[in-house]
């Protein structure tokens, strides 16, 4: 079969990506790490060659370690994502609170202007009240002066009246004897009457003037009372405005505190991101080291079994409903990306047993961080056509074998499931010619399927 035209070179499936942002290690550190890995690999090779049974144990232990590192990377990536979301939320909250503080500051400025205007009105009203009080005081003085004038005039009036009474009572004979004729008598009487009328008119005018002054005083007191009511109303308004202003300032202070808390939260989230990123980089470096050990162990185990050979494949499922997806280019049902589907999907009920398509050495048995979920890779060695082959079984519900184990054709290796990037229960089956994914071929050319 021809190679897939667009297939990209494939590093062994367990090869993970290095941290994108990992800082380059110093040359000395890389040298020490390389020597350590070489020593570890040499020890592993020795253990495989001398103790084949312990090789499987080492493989299983390394695979478990790899799985734990993968889980740790995923956890730290989640922590990194959560920290980024927390920082974003904190910054959004800070922006919202800052905007609210700006609105409150505008409201405080408006209130301050209103308070100043009311305070100015209070000052003007108090000046008017003071002016009215001065006018009232002056009016009271005028009333007092007028009363003094009335009292003096009243005293003079009483003297005139007494004199006139004496003239009328005791001096009427003398007055008659002094009068030469009737005209003089009538004239004298008219004069006396005119004096009486004039005095009475003066008294009435003064009383009227006093009454006017008292009326003015009453009006002034009424004006003063009205001004005092206005002042009280303005003071009440100012008290309300002062209360609102105090509330606004208190709210502003509260929001400023919340802004500080949001800034601290964003800073903490930033630190959490840095810690999570550092943990990811550390885990990925360790992941790379363990993968190299596994690859060395697999290579050693494969080279120690040159007798591995087989004559052909068998269908890994004794029962399945249909082939739900063929080998070839397609749009991935999970990601929506158009890419090569490097195998065939066999739709089957969850828990359906999966068997080795041919005898061989289990290279991988565990969880894939690349989307296969629970999966198994078996190296079969050379077939009668002279090429070496491997098979991959993906999306298992669970794995029923272990890395480093030799399995026979038809031996149970797992159960159908829908783990990893999957939309339903099925077995994803790949055949690798030459033992690498880069040379994945169409399983239909190598495996007999009972139907479809």
Q: Can you tell me the number of structural domains? A: 2
User: What gap, in angstroms, lies between the N and C termini?
Assistant: 20 Å
CATH fold label of the largest domain:
Helix Hairpins
**Uncertain regions spanning at least 5 consecutive residues:** 1-53
Which percent range describes the beta-strand content?
15-25%
**Total DSSP E strands:** 13
Give the topology string: H per helix, E per strand. HHHHEEEEEEEEEEEEE
Main beta-sheet annotation: 11 strands, mixed
In CATH's first tier, which class of the largest domain applies?
Answer: Mainly Alpha
Tally of helical runs: 4
Oligomer class: single chain
The name of the CATH architecture of the largest domain is Orthogonal Bundle
Secondary-structure-derived class: alpha+beta
What gross morphology would you assign? rod-shaped
Please give the share of residues in helix: 55-70%
On the 0-100 scale, what is the average pLDDT? 79
Explain what this protein looks like in three dimensions.
The strands form two sheets. Strands 1, 2, 5, 6, 7, 8, 9, 10, 11, 12 and 13 form an eleven-stranded mixed beta sheet that branches. A two-stranded antiparallel sheet has the order 3-4. The chain has four helices and 13 strands. The model is unreliable at 1-53 (pLDDT under 50). The longest helix has 122 residues, at 182-303. The chain is of the alpha+beta class. Helix content is 60%, strand content 15%. The protein is rod-shaped. Helix 2 runs antiparallel to helix 4. It has helices at 27-50, 52-169, 172-178, 182-303, and strands at residues 309-310, 322-325, 328-331, 338-341, 344-347, 353-355, 360-368, 373-383, 388-399, 406-407, 412-416, 426-433, 440-441.
